[in-house]
Specification:
- The chain starts with a strand and ends in an 8-residue tail after the last strand.
- The strands form six sheets. It has a seven-stranded mixed β-sheet with strand order 15-16-17-14-13-19-20, sandwiched between helices.
- By secondary structure, the chain is α/β, with parallel strands linked by helices.
């Protein structure tokens, strides 16, 4: 049985009075271990450790920080298979997806290690003799980082890497439902020789931990990945002490499929993207608008490809889609499917729970979904797909941009003019044309509107943890009035 303990001030911390929280395998509903929630004393110790660690870590050169991060990357890569198995056990995604996530996490950490040496400032052209001016980029301070359960390696890795590369310390709080993967990400840095106090890991009730961390004067920045509703609550807390924030919040990504593409090929490509991690992806393509000329052919091909996916335990190499991560998600998908059908949509496939142990729900496809239907306005975050026809470019763009979200958006077209128009007019932080890979280590990951602000990844991912300082120096002996 696995045990997940907090890591505070250089040691694994066991709260004396904490009631353990079970870790459930979503494919079997059986416990694979438990989490020990941190107590208030441990949480305060983590805040104090981060403050002490910041003083130490910011004094290291960018090159020293980069070298240690590369060592952690090497350790993480050497443990990829072991960590991937833990991820599948606690989160449910197929083993191949889990291994890919660990590999991508290492790639992102490696990129940010390189960026640690590029926190450039600049020298300004002097306006007055004897006065020099420069702009410096310095680490913002200790960071509180909050991570969800759907990408238990990649999300912590991005936040840890960005903060450490900039010279910040941090307290990271993963989900209690997927604690083991985050523990292994932290362990890689510990085994690479990261000084005590620089990186602290805490588990426990999200609200209690968030309120205590964000209120702490020592914490100078928060970074959160999760729902828009929770993000707004954390921002309100951060505003009370004017803390900087990076927010990667909810989405409801539109897909425009134009009539100049092969509908069967486009549908198959979309299915592979939509049902990754059982649709539990913030950038998942979730609202499909298909031009009228190919609409029925696309719907038919999409449902056929979705129905053919092999669903099962993520440890089975034949599995193409695993279970949902928890019972809440399973209940939500069943309720959403029933409501969508009641609101007049045409159910093509799926819609009912599979008759087996585990949180399994089949790929579910609805056609002719109205714009005012619940599923078109609230992010499904699961394997439920609404499809609707659209007319011309203006109609498609208006409907794609019609929600207050703007994380990712997609378009599929064989026309260069349409591709350019879609990339110009879609309101999203990330736009993909003719594919569904929204980010790489070198590109920024973030949204607009109520999908948040700030970015992780790329040069922007380093900038998020840096503060700007303007320095003006009068030369000694300069003949200037005081």
């Amino acid at each position: 049985m696995q045990i997940a303990s907090s890591y505070i001030a250089g040691r694994w911390y066991d709260s004396s009075d904490a009631a353990p929280i079970p870790i459930l395998n979503p494919a079997t509903e059986e416990s694979i271990g438990h989490v020990l929630p941190v107590d208030d004393a441990g949480l305060d110790a983590a805040i104090g450790a981060a403050a002490a660690g910041f003083t130490l870590w910011r004094a290291r050169s960018g090159y020293e920080r980069a070298a240690l991060m590369r060592e952690a990357v090497a350790i993480l890569r050497s443990r990829k298979d072991e960590i991937a198995r833990l991820m599948t056990l606690e989160q449910g995604k197929p083993l191949a997806e889990a291994a890919g996530e660990v590999a991508t996490s290492a790639d992102n950490m490696e990129w940010m290690a390189e960026e640690a040496t590029r926190a450039y400032g600049r020298v300004l052209v002097p306006r007055t003799a004897g006065i020099t001016q420069s702009v410096r980029r310095e680490p913002v301070g200790p960071v509180a980082a909050f991570c969800p359960w759907n990408f238990p390696a990649l999300t912590p890795a991005r936040k840890i890497a960005g903060a450490l590369a900039a010279g910040c310390s941090l307290v990271i709080k993963p989900s209690e439902e997927t604690p083991l993967t985050a523990r292994e990400i932290v362990r890689a840095f510990v085994d690479a020789g990261l000084p005590a106090n620089v990186l602290n890991l805490v588990y426990g009730p999200p609200r209690r931990i968030a309120e205590r961390l964000i209120a702490a004067p020592a914490i100078r920045k928060i970074t959160f990945t999760g729902s828009t509703g929770v993000g707004k609550q954390l921002l309100a807390l951060a505003a009370q002490t004017v803390k900087r924030a990076t927010m990667e919040l909810g989405g409801h990504a539109p897909v425009l499929v134009f009539d100049d593409v092969d509908p069967v090929q486009a549908a198959r490509q979309a299915v592979a993207a939509k049902f990754r991690n059982a649709g539990q992806v913030c950038t998942s393509p979730t609202r499909f608008y298909v031009q009228q000329g190919i609409y029925e052919d696309f719907v038919r091909a999409f449902a056929e490809a979705a129905s053919a996916l092999r669903i099962g335990d993520g440890l089975d190499p034949q599995t193409q889609m695993g279970p949902l991560a928890n019972r809440r998600a399973l209940d939500a998908m069943l309720a959403l499917s029933e409501r969508t059908e009641a609101e007049g949509a045409r159910r093509i496939c799926g819609g009912t729970r599979l008759d087996r142990r585990g949180y399994f729900f089949p790929p579910t496809v609805f056609a002719d979904v109205r714009d005012d239907a619940t599923v078109m306005n609230e992010e499904p975050f699961g394997p439920v797909v609404p499809i609707a026809p659209f007319g011309d470019m203006d109609d498609g763009i208006a409907r794609a941009n019609g929600l207050p979200y703007g994380l990712a958006a997609y378009a599929v077209t064989g026309s260069l003019a349409r591709a350019q128009a879609a990339s110009d007019r879609l309101e999203a932080g990330m736009v993909c044309i003719n594919h569904y890979t929204v980010s790489t280590p070198a590109s920024p990951f973030g949204g607009v509107k109520e999908s948040g602000y700030g970015s992780e990844g790329g040069v922007e991912g380093l900038d998020a943890y840096l503060a700007t300082k303007s320095v003006t120096v009068r030369s000694a002996g300069a003949d200037l009035p005081l």
